[in-house]
Specification:
single chain, 476 residues, alpha+beta, BirA Bifunctional Protein, domain 2, five-stranded antiparallel sheet, elongated, Mobilization protein, Endonuclease_MobA/VirD2
């Protein structure tokens, strides 16, 4: 089984060549090869040849948007279970390039053996050296790479990745109606998110790959907003469904249940290209926590780290020496647990009304708002009766109880999302998991509405009491 990814090198081509040809990773460059003529095995010479080749076709002009790419960086990773040798992996990389380019583009291939999985780094020139023109890379190029790579794997007795059935969550009936008409931008965004999340390893990579499909990701506080580049339409994560918020996306990317801690940039002790070391709050800079960058979501000055729930986190002293291991949830002894954003958890219950008559739409929306107001009153009465009258709780205790229930349902939702990411599911299993995910989303939304009913009631009572006291004061 081989996983194929692609990126672009636009400025630091020489550094990129140095990295992929690192002697420590390639058996002293034994596993480096190229179809460049007469350059030996010199990374600097590789980069120089690529640049000179492009300079000839650019006729000395300054780079434009269409000529910024100096090389396509392709990574072909093999599963450790395939027991493939580095030499054979390297040969498959060469065959992949020959088939995809027809032998008309220059490339450099370096096979890395420094990790548990063997992988090829490939620098591909964007120039066809026969036509002396830049090769256009369409959106389907990555799919072609993966198809050819899968064919090579099958020919060599290696496993291939089964195409996952793309799932979507939180669709309303009007969404289904517009989907049939081919007009649902929300559905298109969900599909592109699902396809992207299963093929990346970090949130930053998710944003880059999703951007290449025409969807921009904006991080604003506790919300994600997805923007369709073609139409300019924007949707908050809650509008797409509970399974598209930051937590659920990180679960899809890592395919494991997670806990979240957050910290300010000022708490960073040191950082490099792979990790960030953070001072642990309350220890007077006596303890540090090292976090892989792929676990981070950056939101301005605030950074959120999504860590595996079922693992131990290592704390070190100020010099980086081991001190202790703590369960991930044990970090909440130092870091503030994430708070519930009740408004975000409530899914909009208003119907989406499609009509060409603006007056009719306005009238129907007014009716829907009145119905929702009645539903809110009924919900508040039922919640007060269940928790305050029959349960004997105070409002504060009831909100805490509901909050605990929401977190339990969120844990269940994470487990369902992890299960839905497994390969080899039959259609019945996929349908069952989709149904359970939608049910879990609805439970979370219903519980959040109960919390809002109680907090809204308390706010009104507080305001009424304040007005009553103010009236007495003026009466004197």
């Amino acid at each position: 089984m081989a996983v194929v990814k692609i990126g672009q090198v636009k400025q630091t081509l020489s550094k990129a060549m140095q990295y992929i040809c690192n002697p420590d990773k390639t058996r002293d460059m034994e596993l480096v090869s190229t179809n460049l003529p007469s350059v030996g095995k010199d990374p600097t010479a590789f980069a120089q040849y690529f640049l000179e080749e492009q300079h000839r076709i650019e006729t000395g002009r300054a780079p434009t948007k269409t000529t910024l790419v100096r090389a396509h960086h392709i990574i072909q990773s093999f599963d450790p279970g395939d027991n493939i040798t580095p030499e054979r992996a390297h040969e498959l990389g060469v065959e992949l390039m020959e088939r995809i380019t027809g032998g008309m583009q220059h490339y450099v291939i370096a096979t890395h053996t420094d990790r548990d999985h063997i992988h090829n780094h490939i620098m591909l020139s964007p120039v066809n050296f026969e036509t002396l023109k830049r090769v256009k890379v369409p959106r389907t190029y990555l799919k072609r790479l993966r198809t050819i790579s899968d064919e090579l794997c099958l020919e060599n007795g290696l496993k291939v990745i089964r195409e996952k059935k793309v799932k979507s969550y939180g669709k309303t009936r009007p969404d289904l109606y517009t989907q049939l008409k081919g007009e649902s931008v929300k559905e298109s965004i969900r599909l592109r998110i699902d396809q992207t999340a299963g093929r990346v390893e970090s949130f930053d990579q998710f944003k880059r790959v999703l951007r290449s499909t025409g969807v921009f990701t904006h991080v604003r506080g506790k919300y994600l907003t997805f923007e369709d580049a073609q139409t300019g339409m924007r949707f908050r994560d809650a509008k797409l469904g509970e399974a598209y918020d930051e937590m659920s996306l990180m679960v899809k990317i890592g395919q494991e249940s997670l806990e979240c801690i957050s910290f300010n940039r000022g708490m960073i002790a040191r950082q490099d290209s792979r990790t960030v070391s953070v001072w642990v709050p309350g220890t007077r800079r006596g303890k540090r926590l090292v976090i892989p960058r792929q676990r981070l979501v950056v939101d301005g000055q605030t950074i959120r780290a999504w860590l595996p729930r079922d693992s131990e986190q290592v704390l070190s002293d100020s010099r980086g020496r081991f001190m202790q291991q703590v369960p991930t949830e044990g970090l909440y002894e130092y870091f503030t647990p994430p708070s519930l954003n009740i408004d975000k958890l409530i899914r909009n219950s208003f119907p989406q009304i499609y009509t060409a008559n603006p007056a009719q739409r306005k009238r129907l929306m007014a009716q829907a708002i009145k119905v929702e107001e009645v539903n809110n009153v009924v919900r508040e009465i039922n919640t007060v009766r269940e928790y305050l009258l029959e349960g004997g709780m105070s409002s504060r205790q009831a909100v805490a109880t509901l909050g605990a229930k929401i977190r339990e349902r969120q844990d269940d939702l994470q487990a369902l999302i992890v299960a839905s990411c497994e390969e080899g599911l039959n259609p019945e299993q996929v349908e069952s998991l989709d149904k359970q995910i939608r049910g879990s989303e609805k439970e979370i939304s219903d519980l959040a509405r109960q919390v809002k009913a109680l907090t809204g009631r308390e706010q009104r009572l507080t305001q009424q009491e304040g007005q009553r006291r103010q009236g007495k004061h003026h009466g004197r």
